[in-house]
Amino acid sequence: MRARFDxxxxxxxxxxxxxxxxxxxxxxxxSWPVLSSGVGVxxxxxxLVIVLADSRPITIVSGRKVEPVGMTVSLAMAMTAVLxxxxxxxxxxxxxxxxxxxxxxxxxxVRWTRYGHIxxxxxxxxxxxxxxxxxxxxxVPRPGGPSLYDALVRWEPxxxxxxxxxxxxxxxxxxxxxxxxxxxxRAAHEHTVVYHALTDExxxxxxxxxxxxxxxxxxxxxxxxxxxxxxAIFAVPLVLLMIAVRRQSAVLDGRRQTxxxxxxxxxxxGFTDPGHAKRVARLGVLVGRQVGLSExxxxxxxxxxxxxxxxQLSLQRSIPGGATTHTSALDQRRVAxxxxxxxxxxxxxxxxxxxxxxxxxxxxxxxxxGDFPIASRILRVVNAYDDxxxxxxxxxxxxxxxxxxRLSMGYDYDPQALRELCRxxxxxxxxxxxxxxxxxxxxxxxxxxx
Amino acid sequence: MGSPPVVWRVxxxxxxxxxxxxxxxxxxLGFQQLVxxxxxxxxxxxxxxxxxxxxxxxxxxxxxxxxxxxxxxAMVLAGPGGAVLVGYASILLDxxxxxxxxxxxxxxxxxxxxxxxxxxxxxxxxxxxxxPGTTPVGILVGLVLPMLAGxxxxxxxxxxxxxxxVHLNHGSNVFAVALEVLRSLGVGYLLHVLVAILLxxxxxxxxxxxxxxxxxxVPLLLTQLAIxxxxxxxxxxxxxVGTLMGAxxxxxxxxxxxxxxxxxxxxRMASRLGVAGEDxxxxxxxxxxxxxxLVSTSPQLPKGxxxxxVSYLAAIQxxxxxxxxxxxxxxxxxxxxxxILHHHERFxxxxxxxxxxxxxxxLFARVIxxxxxxxxxxxxxxxxxxxxxxxxxAECWKRAGTHLDPEVVQALAxxxxxxxxxxxxxxxxxxxxxxxxxxxxxxxxxxxxxxWQPEGSEGxx
Lengths: 450, 461
Description:
Distance between the termini of chain A: 15 Å
CATH class of the largest domain in chain B: Mainly Alpha
Helix content of chain A: 55-70%
Strand content of chain A: under 5%
Oligomer: heterodimer
Distance between the termini of chain B: 67 Å
């Protein structure tokens, strides 16, 4: 499934909706909170920790910024019922959401001045929405019994674990909601399939999410005996998990950086036009998303695009000017095969090796070879396009290049890959709608627009 | 056919220790009015789970042993007798293979340490059960501080028992070994007791019971999983870089396998020079990639010249910088870059690219320089045969102080004494194909460079 709304719609809609939600919550429970006997101090500590934690987000795989500790404290704040000495927290969900939003906004301000991150209203609105939702559901009577909040106040000795489990489910629900909304937003923003965006997100932040759930429940429960101190010390296991996750993503980033560095080898040796591999990688990934490849497939496509000329280095007799579309098909295949052989030595690069090997295979051989990966057919088309266009900024060159590819479509080049390339170029404003129709890639104009 | 007495002493010690543990457990179970069997069973299961999941080599300091957390919590939740049982169960239920003797010793030692920890907890005023309504200060005095004390006592028992065991096996000083073990644990080891305190707080004063184990264990389990996967991925990544580098060497037949051999030699020297942990990783990568610049510059090297030609020397001196330029964007290679940039510096300051001398040259670079020269000498060239290991080492000694760092050469000598080095032979056929190629790593080339000294290279430090 593709995202039907664009990303601005999602963020603005979310902001408006959560404002409305907070207003409704306030209307349902507008009694002014009593801040005596420790409740005020506890709320202030919650805000302080959220500001401190959120102003230092950690970066994990592919540049995602996450705030696990801030989220933990926000959820714990929504789920806490009792402070030491049996004091009840009489603060309505609407007020809790506002407190969370204020803290989150303050942190966004700190990040703006310190790192130059532009504050996003949607981030703050999301936090308010989640806090309000969890606090509200905590206070709604469960079927056939008191609300979780009331049960926590009474704290009967029997079946306490069911209450903890219920809280864990609420926290997990909140995180899942956030994950789905952000994945949808990203899918809309990057023109990718929602399901792929969601699985990728789950893989990247899933473990941290579980850590947040368990830390939030522990903190909310421990506050009843040790008070606001719980906010600080119950984050320790989560912080350990954060360190481990960040190290793991450092290794993944390292692998990516290694491939980028390797892609420069052929440029430095003077075999290829500088920047060619980079441009093919960028465009290839866009086309891959358009075709609906999953994130791991896109990563392989990116690596294959970056390394597709690597074979030049191991050839005894190099091909001057690189293995471009202008050289003979035989030479192209020679370089592709040599590059694939290099990559095949390593376990991690087996798939990339296959893609590199096949990018020199013309499309018509698909009947003979059976199927070969769509990613390599995309790579073939995008590589040929970049060879023809190069660094030229002239739109005439672009059209002539596409026309040339169009002539060999179905013989040399995969029709689907070429069509999606043209769509991507159109979206990027590189070719006009008229040019796109003139290429006659689709039987009707309506299909071209789809 | 008498066994050496040392084995009997070890078994006697393990026997006495087991006896002590059983006695402690027996006394503890009698002493406690109420044994929390539920806690004993659950903690034993968790402890055993942690032992079975333990990754033997992590190579970093984030190691958080699950079993240690469970044992620390058992001191309070299970009482002295229960703690002994949990200690025994955690180690004995290890389903991976291991030596019987060490397993018996480990289980008895673990039981003793958690048992004494539990006794110490009660002795300094720790509460067996925290009454409802205890204030936060009451919890600090009656639970948190005594737990810390009990944990420290159990660590002391642990290290001393290890010291005794090592003394019986190798005759070393008991307390020196105990101190060494203590130092290797580091301050980070206190994290375990902190997490254990969280578990106990939720279990007893909050009153959540066994479910609190789930809440605390889940993040720990995920952490352990992330760490072990991370270790796998790091190894995998190092392998990838190594194989790719090896594959790229195919273009210059002289250098096939060279990077991998230099990396191996550097690894062997590293531990003897006090390079360990992440530094060792960085040195390994630096050694693997030290000639990466050559892969891209070699197609442009002048052919058919002798090693002394200025054109050749001028061309070759660019490869360290070319390599560093390519790798500059890779964050994790940051610490490896000085090793790559300066691997052709000479100890007397006559090398390239910067003309650094002595210990101004980064240690990694000095290590790679020695490995580089040694590997070049033990590989045959079209103009000379390969040298044997001892011959090449003698040549390195001759160069110590001028070309190479004597301290590093000493490390190489120690490494070779342990495992000798097999010279590399390139086939005559390959040699015939590449007759006109010089080997830039040949120490003779380094001497040519030192004698040449291009204008302006002096004082560039």
